[in-house]
Amino acid sequence: MNNQETIAQHKQNLRLELKQRRRSVTPAQRDRAAEQIAKSALALASNSKRIGLYYALPNEAPTRPLAQALWKIGKHVYLPRIHNDRHLHFFLWEQDTVLESGKLGIPTPTSNNTEIAAENLDLIFIPLLGFDQSGHRLGMGGGYYDTTLSRTAQPIKIGLAFECQEVEQVPVEEHDIRLDLLITESRVLRFQ
């Protein structure tokens, strides 16, 4: 087995463990975390106008309270759609936007909504399965965020996670992007 296969296998094993950790977060813990994460994220987004967000799936760090807070202060919020080129394209998400089931069953605005290129976002909140103290993240394995964000230094990349998702070291491959910041229910980590 070569080094690439070893890293890929390690990532796969870690994903299984981290999915279980995420599932162990109770609904009450998730609700409290959502409030704390939204509060910290809102402070970081105060000087930004165009913000990329993700539609949180049931076990992910919740984003709905953050979206509502951003809308309340007049921010433009964009959700990703997966395109055939494996890149994410971002479309305006407003309170009254009707969402449809996109690829992988994730709710997304239709492609008729206003689109913005990832590099024109001021900051982007990114889902993840795991993170470490160096700013490396482990995603679900599709590589959509890595593919999309590897082309540009902008936007500021902020991971959202529960504390239980921290690992000692995320296995890293050449194509993996690094986070600039990470927010959990109890802290904000800034990476160099």
TrEMBL record:
Q: What class of enzyme is it?
A: ligase
Highest taxon, organism lineage: Bacteria
Q: Which reaction does it catalyse?
A: (6S)-5-formyl-5,6,7,8-tetrahydrofolate + ATP = (6R)-5,10-methenyltetrahydrofolate + ADP + phosphate
Signal peptide residues on this chain, from the entry's feature table:
none
Q: Which InterPro entries does the entry link to?
A: FTHF_cligase (IPR002698), FTHF_cligase-like_sf (IPR024185), NagB/RpiA_transferase-like (IPR037171)
Q: Which cofactor does it need?
A: Mg(2+)
Its EC number is: 6.3.3.2
| Pfam families in the record | 5-FTHF_cyc-lig
Q: Which UniProt keywords apply?
A: ATP-binding, Ligase, Magnesium, Metal-binding, Nucleotide-binding
Record keyword ATP-binding present: yes
Listed GO biological process terms: folic acid-containing compound biosynthetic process; tetrahydrofolate interconversion
Query: Tell me, what is one Gene Ontology molecular-function annotation carried by this entry?
Result: metal ion binding
The text of the family note is: Belongs to the 5-formyltetrahydrofolate cyclo-ligase family.
Q: Which NCBIfam families match?
A: MTHFS_bact
Which protein are we looking at? 5-formyltetrahydrofolate cyclo-ligase
